[in-house]
Prior knowledge:
Layout: E1 6-7, H1 9-14, E2 18-23, E3 42-50, E4 56-69, E5 76-90, H2 93-101, E6 106-109, E7 114-115, H3 116-127, H4 136-154, H5 156-164
Parallel strand pairs: 5-6
Antiparallel strand pairs: 1-7, 2-3, 3-4, 4-5
Helix pairs in contact: 4-5
Protein name: Large ribosomal RNA subunit accumulation protein YceD
Keywords: Ribosome biogenesis
InterPro entries: YceD, YceD_bac
Amino acid sequence: MSDQLVIDTLDFVRNAGSLRGRVCPCDLERLQDYLTDKAGELVYSIEGLFDHQDRPMLRIAVSGTVNLSCQRCLEQLEHALELESELLLARNEDELCRYDEDVTVDAIMASTALDILTLIEDEIILSLPNSPRHQDIACLTTSKLEIYRAVTDEHPFAALATLKQ
Ligand SMILES: [Zn+2]
C-alpha cells in the first residue's frame, strides 16, 4: 500500500487545498475485482472549493488507463479513464438528505479524516461501464478473426457469411 492520505474536508476547502498524485491500480484493492491485471497508472487531483452558492465541495479528477475484460469476446480491453466529479460536502445528516434529493448534485458527509484514495477508488468504480465492450473492429481482430480462420480452411464462403453477421 502507498501511504494513506487523509484530509479534514472542510479545512481543506477553507484553505483552498489541492492535491495531486499518482496511484497504481494495484494499490486500490476493491478496484481489482473489475480489472484483468494490475497494469496502468492513474493520475488524480483533488481540490477544495466553494460552489456558486457558497457550499463547500471537492472536485476530483482521475485520468489514466486500466484493463477491463470485454463482455463480448472476454479478451482484455484497455479502458481510458477520464473522470471528473464534484461532491458537495454535507455538514450534517439533514443537509445530506437534502442533497440526496437533488438529482443535479452528488454529496458526501464532511469528515475530519477522509481517506483520499478510498474516495478516488469509489469514484473510479462508479465511472466504469457496466458492460465494457471493444469497438467492433477490436473484437473482430480477436475472437471473430479466429472463427474466420478456422472456417476459411474448410468453407471459404461460409466464412464470409460468418463475417457479415
Ligand atoms: Zn471484445
